[in-house]
Write a structure and sequence with these properties.
single chain; mainly alpha
């Protein structure tokens, strides 16, 4: 029977138990992410179709899914590329569209502050809308209980990797097989359905609801602006409205 020595090494039994716990957390994250993939798969195919339509080579379209890995930003970027938008407009628009990830990071940061830089870098790369929805729900369920598993970052990893793999595969399907999909199917409508499904559960208070309503209204009113600048304007105004409402409540 192994024991803990003077050097403080972990006995084999404890190490095996820890690895089993890590595996359970990882698989739980994969399992909880699976239902969301029903909306992600057509979303990825839509991006692949639009990327080819914008003139991107197949390799570049697939590489964007690996490097940028942000569905809404990728769709906006391909549309801007198709319209010949200046590079500075493209970069600024993508940054603004992805500003919400800073809020996601601020939300999960206290939960992973004990991890090393390697883990933090990996999880930050995997932090997307769909992964955050699952992980944040898990953290909310756990709360501050004393019996919370110390391996929850493996749950985060499982959820994030499941989404990443699904996104790469669906993008590849859109890029390499998308030509066979009839455009009359109207798959682009699933993009709106995906974001509606993500937004509604997140409307938990007056501030988030006001931000969503303000951004939605302005996005519709500014749809005619060139280079899709209406999306940038709607995002900025939505964030501003949310902050103002939250400040008045506190």
């Amino acid at each position: 029977m192994s024991t803990r020595g003077a050097a403080g090494y972990i006995e084999p039994m404890s190490l095996a138990s820890s690895r089993r716990a890590q595996g359970r957390e990882f698989l739980a994250g994969c399992r909880d992410e699976l239902p969301i993939l029903l909306g992600v798969a057509p979303f990825g195919m839509i991006y692949g179709l639009l990327a080819l339509d914008a003139g991107l080579p197949a390799f570049a379209a697939q590489a964007m899914s690996s490097v940028l890995f942000a569905g809404s930003a990728q769709l906006v970027a391909t549309r801007l590329i198709r319209e010949g938008a200046p590079a500075v407009v493209l970069v600024v628009t993508v940054l603004v569209v992805n500003l919400r990830h800073a809020l996601y990071s601020a939300s999960v940061a206290p939960r992973i502050k004990h991890l090393g830089m390697g883990w933090k870098a990996l999880l930050s790369y995997l932090l997307t809308d769909e992964a955050y929805a699952v992980v944040a729900s898990r953290y909310a369920r756990d709360g501050d209980r004393a019996d919370v598993s110390p391996h929850r970052h493996w749950y985060f990893l499982g959820a994030g990797l499941t989404l990443w793999a699904a996104w790469q595969c669906s993008t590849a399907a859109g890029v390499f097989l998308g030509a066979a999909v009839p455009r009359r199917w109207g798959l682009d409508f699933t993009l709106a359905l995906t974001f509606i499904a993500l937004v509604f559960p997140a409307l938990e208070d007056l501030a988030t609801t006001a931000a969503a309503i303000a951004a939605g209204i302005l996005a519709v009113l500014a749809v005619g602006l060139p280079y899709k600048l209406g999306l940038v304007l709607a995002a900025v105004v939505g964030i501003g409205v949310g902050l103002v409402v939250e400040a008045r409540r506190t």
